[in-house]
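Materials and Methods. Structural model of Cytochrome c oxidase assembly protein. The 642-residue sequence of Cytochrome c oxidase assembly protein from Gordonia aquimaris was retrieved and submitted for structure prediction as follows.
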Amino acid sequence: MAVALLAAFLGVSAAVLAWYATSVAGARYKQSGDPFPGVATAMSDVVGNYLVSAVAGLTLGALVYVVIAARPDDEGYVDITVYPAYRAAARVATAWVALAVLMVPVAAADTTGLSVTRLIGEGYLAYGISVSDPAAAWIVTAGAGLVVLSAVRFSLKWSTAVAALLPAMIGVVAVPVVGNAAQGPNHDYTTGVVMMCTVALAGSFGLRIAWLRRPRHVLGACDDRIVRRRVAPVLVVLDGVVLVCAVVLSLAWSPGNFLQDTASGRATVIMIGVTGLALGADALTYRGRAARWWLTPDALQTLAAAAGLSAIAAWAVIDTRVAPGLLSHPFTAWDVFLGYTLRTGPSVPTILSVWRVDLIVVGLTITAATAYAIGVCRLRRAGHAWPLGRTLSWAAGCVCVIAASGTGIKAYGTAMFSVHMIDHMLVSMLAPLLLVLGAPLTLALRACATLRGHQSMMLQDELNHLINSRLIAVVTNPVVALGLYVGSLFAVYFTPLFDVLVRYHWGHVLMTLWFFTTGYLFFSVVVAIDPGPRRLPVLARLGLLVAAMPFHALFGIALMTSTTIVGESFYRELALPWVADLRRDQWLGGVFTWVGGLIPVIVVAVVLIIEWWRADYGVRGRWTDPGGPDDELLAAWANSRQ
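The predicted structure was written out as tokens:
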């Protein structure tokens, strides 16, 4: 009944958006100075954005529900309590892909000022896509949805749902990050805020629907309460993120009277209001106080889901209009290329004082540091020791990531290739190595063992399912890990891909996360502190490290000697006064890469040689060898694979 009511609400809200888009017609295009593509295209742009956001949210939320509510069996397959949500994700992902594909010509027509029929009929579709960032973003969205569909259609493993979360989130943020978020002053911050806002908004809506569709007759009263206690806190966090982000965006895009005098501003107010209502419903559900309002938890969440749909509709209005705050702002070259101003060249004082925080990367790093600290504290309260060296290594790795993504290294790294390569060395080599030496998986397994009741066994089983999953087995294969690690350097920097990524803040976020991931995978195979699908002998790991060295040196030398300037068009258009010679700046970046890359290699070589010596002489190590207190844990993990 609840789902049927929400489906009706979806249709009504889509009709309201269609009426809105038709009534304002060319006014919003005239306001921004864009060519008017016709009423049908203008209406399709707004309504299509809303519908795709809704079905993408349903897909993402269903996957989140499976991840947090499932109780996988011994082979890692999802149980019957989440099977409906898992299959719903596959069905809705089909609609997601189809609608996203239909939005490609709509976005191209909207950008070029032509109707969809004329764009396609006169053969301008390819040209329209080439000049339209939203059209390209819709292609990415469709591709991400297709990856999700392929994953969940052909596998019922719980680990598959976990892996599918990443492409689902990429598909959700692809279109919003090329809109208002990529424009104007402080767009490095607004991009991060929009990414968090859209993922949280889509996830909270879809998670509610998945929870409302749970098989109550299978769960029973006791299990139903357990699921509610897992879902409700996640909803509180997601809606809290949406509320904070919406307030921040209102200050950035609709300051002052724009909030009440423009459609975008009023849509922002609606989004803030309905998200606040949803957050209140989440709090009542979490605390079990729905009965005080003469409502059941399901009724409360049905109302909250309607509020979530309203917020998505409001976002469709915001995302398809140029923000009034941007229209009134006198743009400079700094606003277009960076989002902030750099007044002098890089130096030690400016690196320490000019901070531009990457909200996504730094936020994830702080979350990881907090989770690690909680795990260590839990172990100590349970009377178990944890090596101080591992804790210090993890903390140092987090500091490296924050330094690369929050200090002047990030501020100048976005504008200068030489500083960018320092950023690259920190996030792809030094930080991953230090974090791997922190043994986070071992800590997580031991911390889970200190929990009481079935929760301890369940969390350990889920971690084991992830460790033993086929995806982890593939990406931690020594050949694959080495190929990703060294191949990514040449694939990004010596192809036109870097020219695209360097222009946008989302591109810098993507590069940071990708290079960090490939670095972490490589060093996790080489150092091999944590449990994994395979543990190579010390000599094999040392050989793998040696195999990577010439490729890294070759990359640095290629940068130093190349006559082609990497990212030349962007850096020439930015035209920093203290970078008179782009080729010398690239040469300097190559030097940083070549020399800086030796430091982690030396550290790893020392660690492996010490481990080799200890293995030969029977000496146990608390840093490099997960023996000692972890022997029983790793033995249990090994038995779980048999």
